[in-house]
Amino acid sequence: MKQDLKTVIWKERKLLFSQRGGRKQVILTLLVPTAIFAVLFPWQEGSGYFESPLAIIASIFIPMLVVMLTIPESFAGERERHTLETLLASRLSDPDILFGKMIVSIVLALAIFLTAFVAAAVIANITDWTGQLMFYSPIVAIASITLSILVATISAAAGVLISLRSPTVREAQQTLMATIMFPVLLLGVVGTFVFTMDGLRETITSTMEKIDPIVLLSVVTIILVVVCYLLLRLAKRRFQRGRLINN
Questions:
Q1: Is the Cβ–Cβ distance between 70 and 169 less than 8 Å?
Q2: Model pLDDT, residue 44
Q3: What is the rounded CA–CA span in Å between residue 146 and residue 159?
Q4: Are 157 and 228 in contact (CB under 8 A)?
Q5: C-alpha span between 103 and 176 (Å, rounded)
Q6: pLDDT at position 121, please?
Q7: Computed from CA positions of residues 187, 189, 190, 196, in that sequence, does the dihedral angle turn out positive or negative?
Q8: Tens digits of pLDDT across the chain (247 residues)
Q9: Distance CA 113, CA 84 (A)
Q10: Nearest to 106 by CA among 244, 232, 237, 238
Q11: Which terminal CB of the chain, N or C, has fewer other CB atoms within 10 Å?
Q12: How far is 217 from 221, CA to CA, in rounded Å?
């Protein structure tokens, strides 16, 4: 890893928890949702948790939440602290600044998700011990880890794009939350409506049962990789020092 990139990562990691109330805010905000997926659901489901879609949902929800909480600080925070001009005037290259800020949020999101992922397995085994250690099926484990990486990266790229233009961290957080959560909520509403229709529900269920999980995972992965690539390219293109300094 380049030294300049390491410098940006070290700076961002330090700032994330050194701001007043920063450590407390991160811990409290993430404690409840992480505990739900890492403790409550495994405790209720027992061994059934390993085959349920809850692990997949956790791989989407937890990284998304962590990134939405941390990435708005990237450039909007520098602007609030009046340190953005100093950072942009440094010898650090544009890619090192941009990706260094994103890496911290992505790594933190993955670390918290993997901790919850393992903790859930431990709780499920304790709750429903059969004398044999149980764990996620290979397809669930691969899908969960793959989705967590892609969701964290997509959220970070979208968050950087918003933070670049936001005057305050609060505004960046609100905009990012609305941008990411709206499609999720819309999908949830549509899904709820569809599954309340008996005929359509049976048709969708039977169709989904015929789809190979590996094929489905491959298709979803390809779509998310394309979205991730496009957002990263857009973030790299939008990161222009002259325009940011003038703003």
A1: no
A2: 85
A3: 20
A4: yes
A5: 18
A6: 92
A7: positive
A8: 577 788 788 877 777 766 544 556 666 667 877 888 888 888 988 888 887 788 888 898 899 988 988 898 888 888 888 888 888 888 888 888 889 899 999 999 999 999 999 999 999 999 888 778 889 988 889 999 999 999 999 999 999 999 988 888 889 888 988 888 777 777 667 666 665 666 666 676 666 667 777 888 888 899 999 999 999 999 988 887 766 665 5
A9: 31
A10: 232
A11: N
A12: 6
* Alpha-carbon span 74 to 86, nearest angstrom: 14
Q: Kindly report the CA angle at 231 between 227 and 234, in degrees rounded to 5? A: 140
Contact indicator for 135, 121 with CB cutoff of 8 Å: yes
Chain position carrying tokens 């859930």? 120
| Closest CA relative to residue 39, chosen from 109, 115, 139 | 115
Q: How far apart are CA 85 and CA 73, in angstroms?
A: 15
When divided into structural domains, the chain yields a total of 1
User: In this structure, which long-range contacts are made by residues 76-85, counting pairs with CB atoms below 8 Å and at least 24 apart in sequence?
Assistant: 76/163, 76/166, 76/167, 76/168, 76/169, 76/171, 76/172, 77/15, 77/19, 77/163, 77/169, 79/166, 79/167, 79/168, 79/247, 80/167, 80/168, 80/169, 84/244, 84/245, 85/245
Residue 157 confidence (pLDDT): 94
> Residue 52 burial by CB count (10 A; 0-12/13-18/19+): exposed, middle or buried?
middle
| Structural domain that includes position 212 | 3-246
| Cβ-contact 176, 68 below 8 angstroms | yes
Tokens coding 46: 């027992």
